[in-house]
Design a protein that fits this description.
Keywords: Membrane, Transmembrane, Transmembrane helix. The chain is mainly alpha-helical and about 140 residues long. The chain has one domain (about 20-140). The chain is about 70% helix and about 5% strand. The chain is elongated and about 60 Å long. About 30% of the residues are buried.
């Protein structure tokens, strides 16, 4: 620990939230979750051996991607919505808009429209909240 490195290197502090790598990371994680969720929407779900929902034949990879990307997606979406830094919010905006467009190219069922709508709400909400937080912080500065 004493090799001249910062102990906060991998923590989510203000300095790390400002890093530009948040933008592509957020967009890629949203794309992975969207692709996995579309596999569940298009392939449907069948009852598994223990009674739960299991991805249909031909859509197992989509199910695994959705399963593995769910928690990272929660973290990057939460970070994009609660921080006052632009890179996570821009990643959420770019990823949400691109993924919504991809979802709408795949179908126009109510499930597709719901996913696209949720993604577009996230895409609009992230920069609006970031702008509002920056404005509030600027008004509190003497």
């Amino acid at each position: 620990m004493g090799r001249g490195r910062s102990d906060s290197r991998w923590t989510l502090d203000e300095k790390n939230w400002s890093r530009p790598w948040w933008t592509p990371l957020t967009a890629v994680v949203l794309a992975a979750v969207t692709w996995g969720l579309l596999g569940l929407v298009e392939g449907g779900c069948r009852t598994g051996p223990r009674g739960g929902c299991v991805a249909a034949e031909g859509y197992r990879l989509n199910g695994w991607v959705l399963f593995l990307a769910a928690m990272p997606a929660y973290l990057v979406v939460a970070t994009g919505l609660v921080t006052d830094r632009w890179p996570p919010a821009l990643g959420l905006t770019l990823g949400g808009t691109g993924c919504a467009a991809y979802v709408l190219t795949q179908g126009r069922t109510p499930a597709h429209m719901g996913i696209a709508g949720a993604l577009l709400v996230l895409a609009a909400l992230a920069p609006a909240l970031t702008w509002w937080r920056k404005r509030q912080a600027a008004s509190l500065t003497p």
